[in-house]
Write a structure and sequence with these properties.
7 helices; two-stranded antiparallel ribbon; 3 domains; alpha+beta; Arc Repressor Mutant, subunit A; single chain; 6 strands
Amino acid sequence: MLIVRDAFLGVRRFEDFQNDLGTTRHRLAARLKKLVGDGILARVRYQDRPQRYEYRLTEKGIDLYPVVVSLLRWGDRWMAGKEGPPIELVHRECGAHVMPTLTCPGCNEEVNARTMTARLGPALRNQSERPRYARLKHRKEHSLS
């Protein structure tokens, strides 16, 4: 997730990821290869001689933005120091500082673990019982808190 976070912050080149994350070349190369293989990042050539590549978020990767923002929000609440959060999100259109929240599309109320339940979706409703979801299937709905 740190690589994805950095990609959202504009990091694209191997050396820049390595400098930001402080990881070994071998570990970073393996993780970038996995993210490319999973379709989250695309390896794009930006120079021919010598051949050099950068990593760009794909549509699949861009769809991780709410996940990254949720982790950012948690970190800002629980881990930020007295100086405040290290990164602020700013809406490009109006310049406002934003801290996105999850809202219900039906009533527009904020949602969290205490106000939500989970139930089997269409992929599991008509299949034989799977051990991971046995409790959900038996109870029909499960509180997330």
